[in-house]
């Protein structure tokens, strides 16, 4: 009787570990995709700052956290715009 329980025990343990592995894989893939989406969104905002807002300026600064784009000509601030 004890031998039969031991044979079932490893199967249950294996199933639990397989389920946990699948859940972990889904979580990691989801987090990576979420992070990539955030980075892509920030890249698009910075590109908009470069090409649309500061197209005639020499330099620009894009502040990610404040979402502000600043354009400079001869080291003087000529334009500052909040990116939606």
Task: Write up what this structure looks like.
With 84 residues, the chain is α+β, with helices and mostly antiparallel strands. The chain has one domain (2-82). The protein has one helix spanning 2-53; strands at 59-63, 68-73, 76-82. Strands 1-2-3 form a 3-stranded antiparallel beta sheet, with helices on one face. The termini are far apart. The chain crosses the membrane at residues 12-39. Keywords: Membrane, Transmembrane, Transmembrane helix.
Q: What's this entry about, in short?
A:
By secondary structure, the protein is of the alpha+beta class. It has one helix at residues 2-53, and strands at residues 59-63, 68-73, 76-82.
């Amino acid at each position: 009787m004890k031998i039969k329980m031991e044979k079932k025990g490893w199967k249950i343990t294996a199933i639990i570990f397989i389920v946990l592995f699948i859940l972990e894989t889904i979580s990691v893939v989801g987090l990576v995709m979420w992070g990539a989406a955030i980075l892509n969104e920030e890249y698009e905002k910075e590109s908009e700052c470069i090409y649309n807002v500061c197209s005639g300026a020499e330099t620009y600064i894009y502040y990610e956290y404040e979402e502000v784009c600043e354009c400079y000509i001869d080291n003087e601030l000529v334009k500052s715009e909040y990116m939606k």
